[in-house]
Every structure is written in C-alpha cells, then in structure tokens.
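Re: weekly structure request thread

Next one in the queue (91 aa):
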Amino acid sequence: MRECIEGGDEAAMRECTEEGQALARMPQAALMCAYALAAWAWWSWDFFAALILTELTPAPASALRLVSAYGLADNLARLGLGAYVGDFVGR
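Done, posted below.
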C-alpha cells in the first residue's frame, strides 16, 4: 500500500485499486450475512413459538386458538409500537 501513496508504477496502482475494491466489498458482505442470520433466527423463533403454543393447548379442537392469539398480539404490538420505537431509535 505504501507504493500507492508514494506514487508507484501503474501495476502497483492497479493492485492497490483491486485491494481497495476487495476491502470495500467485505463490509457489505458481512452486513448481508448478519442480516440473513438475524432474519433466519427471527423466522425460526416464530415457527418454534407456534409449535410450542400448539403443544401447550390441551384440547385438539382449539389447538390453534392460542397460536392465533399470539399472532394477533404480536402484530398489534408491532402496529401500535412500531412508529414509536422507530422514532426513538431515529433520535
């Protein structure tokens, strides 16, 4: 990298440019991987929460009632508190 700063030849400048481009792509890839893993964990939690709530319900006729109540409460909380939390984080 020192040759780039001191004004090396064209081949050294090209190599420095390629290194810089590779380094610039790394944070984007890390951010995309982090987002993918976080989304996967969130979806897994939603799936396993539904399975756990289904197992907790004693009667087979109302097996999905607890799961639907959880989904309703979750979505109402997101709808009601989403703007407030977004405002708080944005400050």
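The two ends are 39 Å apart (CA to CA). The chain has three helices and no strands.
Next request, please.
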